[in-house]
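> call design_seq(struct)
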């Protein structure tokens, strides 16, 4: 599991996340800053796993999560809101609390690959 899709509306956080993932040996193969592009990328792009921001400019990323569930793609949420959005499944999904350190991202990615 090396190719990661990032859904993040804050460009600085997306760049930081990309750098952190590279440090851990992952490659960001796609990134989307809004719900529309995230849905298109989640539907049409090949990747191994995804990291989703819970809120994309006020819109929930839950539709992207549902599409990833349908495709059988593992993902985790990165959020400053504390929890995954209501309706998320499975409930055992890793949730990465923003702001996070490299070690926290590493642990979340390990949980994601073990799921």
């Amino acid at each position: 599991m090396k190719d990661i899709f990032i859904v993040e509306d804050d460009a600085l956080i997306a760049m930081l996340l990309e750098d952190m993932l590279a440090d851990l040996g992952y490659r960001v193969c796609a990134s989307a800053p809004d719900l529309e592009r995230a849905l298109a990328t989640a539907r049409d792009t090949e990747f191994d796993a995804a990291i989703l921001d819970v809120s994309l400019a006020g819109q929930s990323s839950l539709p992207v999560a549902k599409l990833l569930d349908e495709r059988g793609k593992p993902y985790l949420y990165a959020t400053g809101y504390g929890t995954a959005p209501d309706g998320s499944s499975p409930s055992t999904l890793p949730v990465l609390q923003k702001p996070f350190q490299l070690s926290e991202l590493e642990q979340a990615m390990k949980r994601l690959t073990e799921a």
